[in-house]
Write a structure and sequence with these properties.
Length: 236
């Protein structure tokens, strides 16, 4: 993805992005029920590389399946491009893990930007100590074979009730994850930077005792004048 767009998205919140997308009629872009395994204090940004799970059937999902070099879960980990986010459709079912710490470590070593599942991750405490941003519904110890069959790589999926297409831009912060359609990423990033500057100004005003009427949103022109002065002083 465009490095300038990536840099802008590294410095805005998912909440701000959700508002920018809402203005464009997109209301269902946040991955629901998913949060960070551990907070990193920085954003996850990267194009989506997807893996779809379907319900497991016992005759197809014994432990011997992991010996298959073409097992889709393993192949996804070994082919997720550098700088991309592995996004897994686990049917919003965290009763069995989507992956564990060894696979997530491998993703990290291969340069993945992050991992997202609407299911669970096993060895979650260990994953939380890794440098790679990881998002899930909750910790889950059972192997994925218990309930999930990895069936398709880099296809359109649903994750946390939101549609994800390969190449969509995933952004995660210390709260949650949002999906930006790839063709909107640049303009949404630009708008979010502007929104963030104004919101930072608003916070400084509120902390100084200002009321929000006329300030948030900026319906009083005097506040826009104050914002321009603040922005110049802050070099924003």
């Amino acid at each position: 993805m465009n490095p300038d767009t990536r840099e802008k998205l590294m410095n805005v919140s998912v909440a701000t992005l959700a508002t920018a997308l809402y203005k464009r009629g997109l209301r269902n872009q946040v991955v629901q029920g998913v949060g960070p395994v551990s907070r990193k204090g920085r954003n996850m940004v990267g194009p989506a590389f997807t893996l779809r799970y379907m319900p497991a059937r016992e005759d197809r999902n014994q432990l011997v399946e992991f010996r298959n070099p073409e097992h889709p879960q393993r192949v996804a980990v070994e082919t997720c491009p550098e700088g991309h986010v592995l996004v897994m459709d686990s049917r919003k079912d965290p009763r069995a893990a989507s992956a564990g710490d060894i696979l997530i470590t491998r993703l990290m070593m291969r340069g993945a930007a992050g991992v997202v599942t609407d299911g669970g991750l096993r060895d979650a405490a260990t994953i939380g100590e890794l440098d790679i941003p990881s998002y899930h519904a909750r910790p889950s110890s059972p192997t994925n074979l218990t309930l999930h069959e990895a069936i398709e790589i880099n296809c359109p999926i649903g994750c946390g009730d939101a549609a994800v297409f390969p190449g969509d831009i995933m952004v995660g912060d210390d709260d949650c994850v949002i999906i930006i359609p790839a063709d909107l990423a640049e303009e949404v990033a630009d708008e979010a930077v502007e929104m963030t500057a104004y919101e930072d100004f608003v916070v400084s005003e509120v902390k100084s005792g200002a009321g929000i009427i006329g300030l948030y949103p900026a319906t009083d022109p005097a506040n826009l004048e104050k914002f321009a002065e603040w922005r110049n002083a802050q070099n924003r």
